[in-house]
Design a protein that fits this description.
Layout lengths: L6 H28 L25 H4 L8 E4 L24 H13 L8 H6 L2 E13 L2 E8 L1 E5 H14 L4 E10 L5 H8 L30 H5 L6 E6 L19 E3 L4 E2 L2 E4 L2 H16 L8 E8 L8 H7 L3 H14 L3 H7 L2 E4 L9 H18 L7
Parallel strand pairs: 1-2, 1-11, 2-5, 5-6, 6-7, 8-10, 9-10, 10-11
Antiparallel strand pairs: 2-3, 3-4
Length: 395
Amino acid sequence: MRIYLNKGIKALIIASLVLVALALLLNIFGFILREEALFSRSGSYKGDQYLSVISKIDGIIEANPRVIDIALLGSHDSFSNEITKNSKVDPAESGMLANPALRSLIGAYIARFSKTQTEDAAGQLKAGVRYFDIRLSYVETERGGEWWTKHGSLSAPFYIYLKQILEFLNRRTGEFVILDFQHVYTADKKISDLFEYLATVDVNGKTIYDYIYYKAYGNDSIPLGKLRYNVVTDFGAESGAVMFVDLNELETSYEKEKSDYKEFFYNRYDTVRSLWHESASSRYLTKQIDKEAENILASSAFDNMLRINQTQHAFTLKRAGDLSGIIFGWSLLRLAEKHNLKLVERAEFIEHLRAMPVFMVDFATSAYGDFIVKVNTKIMEYNNNLCKGYGQKGY
């Protein structure tokens, strides 16, 4: 038995079905944009095997290598692990992503490309991370002004991470960390206020300045290219820290900043080589890294600088399929876990360490494919060979 419908009813039914389908798709899309757990990654290394990755380098005291020649694992946007869909916007942020209404609608989606690490400073140190890419904003809160870590969104007060680093330095000898303050939003403060603040955070009476032996009040500093392991760690008897900040980015200078503590920082503007690579294509990223490594090794211009290998496997809308990947499966953590492993497993990785000793990545503590074990094994192998042949370098 056939049922015949006039054209008007048919059109109404079709229109209704289309509206139902659109509503269903909008609900699914809205859920995706709001849901956080679907795209998070929690496969982090949880052991403590790599608490001593520098002090265990064979013959490091005898070789006394330059700090900038020692290979280190680094984390990009190091202290973004506390970012969630409910995180407040970074006061330095502007544009659409700073819009409260938009953030309430797609907060989880924003968190997916703001959160680059899953572990705090303590967890990263256990996994062998020794270089920290630090982003800070001065934020007015109910408790008063405070320095917060951030990456588009606010993560957590900086003192939490700093205390964990100080606890590590207090307990370990022969290790050192690099604190690279890449971006600092001071609001109505000055960079010297941050310098003074660091002197107020302590563990067992020692602040970060107490772990810096290459600079002191009124003394001439050691040029970065001549800074050696034994100076930073007192011949392995102590732990140490090296700090960088880009004063030029803040439209100021050492001469304008009135703070005794400024002498504890190297100006990263002229001491750090850190060329940024970002793409959805792993092939493109590896080509760019190869090109940068070749460029560095072919020139003497970077010999006395801290050289950093930094890439981010991000997203684009240049190819078919990118949109579905962005909507249904994309996050910086998810992309990084596979990208990091590919880089470490490449035959060129060791040569890249020679060009760029600091290997800085998103999701630096990923356990995917035994990444942490593989990267630390190769870094330690490289450093052991570095110290064996260091006397031949003429430094």
